[in-house]
Design a protein that fits this description.
Elements lengths: L3 E2 L9 H14 L3 E4 L4 H14 L3 E2 L9 E3 L13 E3 L12 E2 L2 H12 L7 E9 L8 E7 L2 H10 L1 E2 L1 H7 L6 E6 L9 E5 L4 E5 L4 H4 L2 H17 L2 E3 L1 E7 L5 E7 L6 H5 L11 E6 L3 E5 L5 E4 L4 E5 L9 H6 L5 E3 L2 E2 L5 E2 L10 E3 L5 E3 L12 E5 L16 E9 L9 E3 L3 H9 L2 E3 L11 E3 L12 H14 L5 E5 L18 H12 L5 E3 L4 E3 L13 H8 L3 H16 L7 H14 L2
Parallel strand pairs: 1-2, 2-7, 4-20, 5-6, 5-11, 8-10, 10-12, 15-26, 26-30
Antiparallel strand pairs: 3-4, 7-8, 7-9, 11-12, 13-17, 14-15, 14-16, 17-18, 18-26, 19-25, 20-25, 21-22, 23-24, 27-30, 28-29, 31-32
Helix pairs in contact: 2-4, 10-11, 10-15, 14-15
This protein binds oxalic acid and manganese (II) ion.
Length: about 600
C-alpha cells in the first residue's frame, strides 16, 4: 500500500529528492510521509504528536516555557562506536580505527532491518543545511526519520526547512540520511556511512549522535572525507572568540573528546579577576575550516544548536548554558521533579527527596543509583545563549589564531604547552589521549589515544588524515599556532589541582599572548610551557607549588607515554606519515632516551 502523503503542499520540487524519498519509503513502508519546513506551526504540531506517542513529556511551562523531557530506551543512551561503520569500496580506505563493511553487504543487511520497519508510523522528511547560508562551504542534507523526537531535535541542531531547499535548488548534491528506529534492538543497530555515495543509513537507535545524522555522521565523518578530497578540515572542535579589555577579538578552535568540557569552555564566563574580558560562542562541537585567500585558516560551525552533556552543568560550571536552558529546550534522560521541573547530578541544587529518574521510575535522593543518566543531554538553539556570537552567521567564518588540543588526563600532560610548529602541532594532536567518558559505550576512565579527538569521527584512514593535516599546514601561509591543554591533572589524593571553568581563561589569555609573541615561555622537551610569571595568576586561589606542579613535566612518565605513542602509531602501517615518525624520534631525543 502506498503511504499517505499528509502535506503535499510542502513537497519539494526537486525530483532527485522525491525519487529517493519514494525509494526509501518503498523499503521502510511507513503509513504516512510528512514533509517538514520548520515553521513554528509545524513545530507545535510535532510537539503535540510527540506528547501523544510519549516521545516527549511536558515540563512545567510556567517555569520552563517550551521545555520538554524525553526518556530514551534504556539500552540506547550513548553513541555505539562498535556498531558504527565506514563503508568504502576498499577496506583500507576506512583504516584501522573504523569498523568497515563492504557497501553492498551493508546496504543488504540494513535493508532487511528497514524493510517494513515503519509500518504504522510516519516518515518525516527533514531538509537541513549545515553551515551558514550563502557560504561556499555549507552542505545540504535530507534526513528521513520515523522519530518525531529526532525531527524536533534536528530543528534545533540544524538550519532546517526552506533555507536548505533554496540552497539545493534542482541539484542532486545532498547527503541522503535515512534513520529508522526499527525495534531499538542492539542486535539490529547499525550506523553506516557510505562516503562514496554521500549516504548515511542509521537503524535501531534514537540516541543523538547515532540518530541526528547532521551531527557526527554528516558534519564529521562524511565531511572529513570530503574535506580530504576538497582541501579543507572537518574537526571535532569548539569555536570561541576571546575579546580582550582592549576590544580585540581572537578566535580559537579547540578539540577535546566527548564530554570533556567543550560546551563549558565555549561559553566560559571570565573570572572576577579578569574584568573586561568577554567570550563569544561560535560553536561547541564541530568546526569546518578552510584556507582563505589571505592565507589564514577560517572556521564555521556547521550546526545551529547544542546537544550538550547535562550532569555537572551548573551556575558555577556554565551559567550561560543554564540561562539558555531556561526555555525552548529538550532534555533527554534527566530527573523530573514533582513540580515538572528538572534536576541532575552536579546541578548545584539540592537533590529532590523524591522524584522520577531518567528511567521513569520513582527515585529518592538517598538512592545509590544516579537520578539522571551520566550521558543525559540538553538540546538548545545556539541563539539561546547569552554568549552567542553573531559571527556564527558569517558565511566566511572566523579567522582562527590558535588551535588547542586537549584531553582528560590525571597525570602526564601539563596544564598547557605550545608546539614548536605546525608539524610538531600535528604530532601533538595525533598523540592526544584521554580518559574515556560516558558519551560512548565502553569502559569509563580507561585511557585511550584519541587523535585530534577524532578517533570515533574520522571518516577515512587516519594515516591519510594525519597527512592531510600536514598538507593543510603547508598550504596555510599564516597558520594558527597549535597548543595542548589539560584541565584535569590531579594531586596524589586524586583532587583536581587546577580550578578549571572560568579560570581556564587565564590559559587562553596566555595562548593569545603567545600568538602575538607577547608572553614568555620555557622551552621543554615536549614544547613551550608558560613561564610562571607569564601566566595571569592574580586572584587565583592556588599556591605557587600547585601552579608549578600543574606546569611540570615528569620525564619518566613522558618516556612511558612515548612508548605507548609508538605502539599506537604502528597501527597505521604504511599510511602513517614519516614526518610524524620524525617528530616522535625528536621527542625521544629531547627527553634523553
Ligand atoms: C557529542 C559527542 O555528542 O561527542 O558531541 O558524543
Ligand atoms: Mn562531540
Amino acid at each position: 500500500m502506498e503511504p499517505e502523503i499528509i502535506n503535499k503542499e510542502k513537497m519539494p520540487s526537486n525530483e532527485h529528492v522525491i525519487k529517493w524519498v519514494n525509494e526509501m519509503a518503498a523499503m521502510c513502508k511507513p503509513d504516512k510521509i510528512q514533509y517538514l519546513d520548520a515553521s513554528e506551526e509545524e513545530e507545535k504540531e510535532l510537539i503535540e504528536e510527540a506528547l501523544r506517542v510519549g516521545d516527549l513529556i511536558k515540563l512545567n511551562q510556567e517555569k520552563m516555557p517550551g521545555c520538554y523531557l524525553h526518556r530514551s530506551a534504556q539500552n540506547d543512551v550513548a553513541r555505539t562506536e562498535k556498531l558504527t561503520f565506514v563503508c568504502t569500496q576498499k577496506e583500507e580506505d576506512a583504516g584501522p580505527t573504523n569498523n568497515w563493511m563492504a557497501p553492498a553487504d551493508a546496504y543488504k543487511k540494513l535493508a532487511e532491518i528497514y524493510d517494513g520497519s515503519m509500518k504504522g508510523r510516519t516518515m518525516y522528511v527533514v531538509p537541513f543545511l549545515m553551515g551558514p547560508k550563502g557560504s561556499m562551504f555549507c552542505k545540504v542534507g535530507f534526513e528521513l526519520t520515523d522519530s518525531v523526537y529526532v525531527a524536533l531535535n534536528m530543528r534545533k541542531m540544524t538550519r532546517m526547512g526552506k533555507i536548505a531547499l533554496e540552497e539545493l535548488g534542482d541539484s542532486d548534491d545532498f547527503t541522503k540520511c535515512l534513520h529508522g528506529k526499527a525495534d531499538l534492538n542492539m542486535e539490529r543497530r547499525f550506523i553506516c556511512h557510505f562516503p562514496e555515495d554521500n549516504t548515511i543509513w542509521s537503524v535501531g537507535s534514537g540516541y543523538g549522535g547515532n540518530a541526528l545524522l547532521g551531527k557526527k555522521c554528516l558534519a564529521l565523518r562524511m565531511a572529513s572525507f570530503l574535506g580530504k578530497k576538497e582541501g579543507w578540515l572537518a574537526e571535532h572542535m569548539l569555536i570561541m572568540g576571546l575579546e580582550s579589555p582592549k576590544g580585540d577579538i581572537h578566535y580559537v578552535a579547540a578539540a577535546f573528546p566527548s564530554a570533556c568540557g567543550k560546551t563549558n569552555l565555549a561559553m566560559l564566563i571570565p573570572p572576577e579577576s579578569m574584568p573586561g574580558w568577554k567570550i563569544w560562542t561560535v560553536g561547541d562541537d564541530i568546526a569546518w575550516m578552510h584556507i582563505n585567500e589571505d592565507g589564514k585558516l577560517y572556521a564555521v560551525n556547521p550546526e545551529a544548536g547544542f546537544f550538550g552533556v547535562v550532569p555537572g552543568t551548573s551556575m558555577k560550571t556554565n551559567p550561560s548554558v543554564m540561562k539558555a536552558m531556561e526555555k525552548n529546550t529538550i532534555f533527554t534522560n534527566v530527573v523530573m521533579k514533582d513540580d515538572g521541573t528538572v534536576w541532575w547530578e552536579g546541578m548545584g541544587e539540592e537533590a529532590p527527596k523524591k522524584a522520577t529518574n531518567w528511567k521513569g521510575e520513582l527515585w529518592t535522593s538517598d538512592s545509590e543509583e544516579k537520578g539522571a543518566h551520566p550521558n543525559s543531554r540538553f538540546t538548545v538553539s545556539i541563539k539561546n545563549t547569552p554568549t552567542y556570537s553573531k559571527e556564527w552567521e558569517n558565511p566566511n567564518g572566523v579567522p582562527i589564531s590558535a588551535i588547542v588540543f586537549g584531553g582528560r588526563r590525571a597525570k602526564v600532560a601539563p596544564l598547557v604547552y605550545q608546539s614548536f610548529d605546525w608539524q610538531h602541532g600535528t604530532f601533538v594532536g595525533a598523540t592526544a589521549a584521554s580518559e574515556q567518558t560516558a558519551a560512548a559505550e565502553g569502559q569509563v576512565g580507561a585511557i585511550r589515544h584519541d587523535p585530534m579527538a577524532m578517533l570515533p569521527f574520522a571518516g577515512y584512514h587516519m594515516g591519510d588524515y594525519f597527512k592531510h593535516w600536514l598538507e593543510m599546514g603547508k598550504k596555510t601561509k599564516h597558520a594558527p599556532k597549535i597548543f595542548h591543554v589539560n584541565w584535569f591533572r590531579t594531586d596524589d589524593d586524586g583532587n583536581f589541582i587546577w580550578p578549571g571553568f572560568g579560570e581556564n581563561l587565564r590559559v587562553l589569555k596566555w595562548i593569545i599572548e603567545r600568538v602575538k609573541d607577547e608572553a614568555e615561555a620555557v622551552k621543554t622537551p615536549i614544547g613551550y610551557v608558560p613561564h610562571q610569571k607569564s601566566l595571569h595568576t592574580e586572584g587565583l586561589n592556588m599556591s605557587e607549588d600547585d601552579i608549578e606542579s600543574v606546569l611540570s613535566i615528569d620525564k619518566e612518565a613522558w618516556n612511558e607515554e612515548v612508548k605507548k605513542q609508538e605502539e599506537f602509531f604502528n597501527k597505521f602501517g604504511d599510511k602513517f606519515p614519516q614526518e610524524l615518525w620524525d617528530e616522535h624520534k625528536k621527542l625521544k631525543e629531547r627527553l634523553g632516551k
